[in-house]
Amino acid sequence: xxxxxxxxxxxxxxxxxxxxxxxxxxxxxxxxxxxxxxxxxxxxxxxxxxxxxxxxxx
Length: 58
Known about the structure:
Number of helices: 2
Largest sheet: none
Number of domains: 1
Shape: flat
């Protein structure tokens, strides 16, 4: 990548991965939802997923 290692290298690699994944998602041409679970709150994540699935059913 850019010669970084340790925490800086990890962060750089994760950012590059996110950009790559976003480019893939943009080219799928289908409905998509990105759920943020950065709080690692299983109940909140489950509720958000249920909302997305219910909206998608309409």
